[in-house]
Amino acid sequence: MNKKSSFLKKPRVTIIGTGNSGCALTADLINRGFQVCLYAHPNHAGKLDSIQQRGTLISEGVVNGEFKPDMLTKDMRDAVSFADYFLVAIPSYAQEELFGLMAPHLTEKHIVANLNGNFGSLTLLQQLNGKKPILLETNVVPHASRVNNEGVVTILGTKKFMMIGSLPTKISSPFIENLNTIFPCHLEWCSDILEVALQSNNGVLHPAACVLNAGWIESKKGDFYFYKDGISPAVGRVIEQIDNERIEIGKLFGFELGSLLDEMTSFYGGNYKTISDFAFNSKVHNIIKEAPSDTHHRYISEDVPFALVPWYELGQAVGFEAETMKSIIDIASNK
């Protein structure tokens, strides 16, 4: 078999993380005929243990069925040995520790895609000690999904595209062809991971909605629809102002970023005039109640320090004061 034809085979894939995205990706990839290893950190392996005890990962919704990963492991060495392609689907606040476990085992043959990375590829780069795997970062995860503690994942929808960038900034076409088969949606390649990280929508959408609904979150303990109930026209206008600030910061760095509303309608379809219009009418986002049960939820603990804060600081670095971002950061920091 020649080198070119070997690239045409479906590559083996290791999924790092057993949260919403990791389990959704695992079910989706196995459903499409890929060999998959699913890894969980030993201290956060409850869902992996449930899947291992049952023997299958149960998926409902867009992908429906029971799927058996080729490997389930808590050993990073085994996870890295299984495949050349890694999809890292973990919260930003877990990246530094997990990358410390991964970095010693990576080589130049490996491709690491940090999903919804929030600049995380730069963290991994610092830990590689001269090794040169290909590092990728996306602005979102492919699926809207939720997984319960028993390792049963509900896939609510699949995005139509994701933005992706790489370190180095150019990678060869065979790797791109493989990535096109691995991801269930179209990939739009960006100039670098800075552009990708500035296009993340979680930092725009989640923190303001949480801060401005803090009373309801604490009293209802998550028993409301985060989107259609929580993102009212007034809340939507604050989100739109944060989005305008993000776009302005992008311009100052030479990027033409898309708006949150344009991106969300491109992901899921529909014709909406405002963010609150989208939030109220989006079927994907209102299938289940997605409200946080407390204000320590990742919508704040992840999306403020790993998205809003670096965006704000990038703006300051080029002389732009993102006042609405700063207000949400300040309030969230004193929750």
How do the strands and helices of this protein lay out in sequence?
Layout: H1 3-7, E1 13-16, H2 20-31, E2 36-39, H3 46-54, E3 57-61, E4 65-67, E5 71-73, H4 76-82, E6 85-88, H5 95-102, E7 111-114, H6 120-126, E8 134-138, E9 143-147, E10 152-158, E11 161-167, H7 173-182, E12 186-189, H8 193-198, H9 202-212, H10 214-220, H11 233-252, H12 260-268, H13 275-281, H14 298-301, H15 304-317, H16 323-333
Parallel strand pairs: 1-2, 1-6, 2-5, 3-10, 6-7, 7-8, 11-12
Antiparallel strand pairs: 3-4, 8-11, 9-10
Helix pairs in contact: 9-11, 9-15, 11-15, 15-16
Proportion in β-strands: 15-25%
Instruction: Specify the CATH class of the largest domain.
Output: Alpha Beta
By DSSP, the count of extended strands is: 12
Arithmetic mean pLDDT: 93
What form results from the Cα inertia axes?
globular
Please tell me the total number of domains: 2
Largest sheet: 8 strands, mixed
Rg, nearest Å:
19 Å
Which fold name corresponds to the CATH topology of the largest domain? Answer: Rossmann fold
Task: Please work out how many helical segments DSSP would assign.
Answer: 16
- Uncertain runs are 1-7
* Terminal-residue CA separation: 59 Å
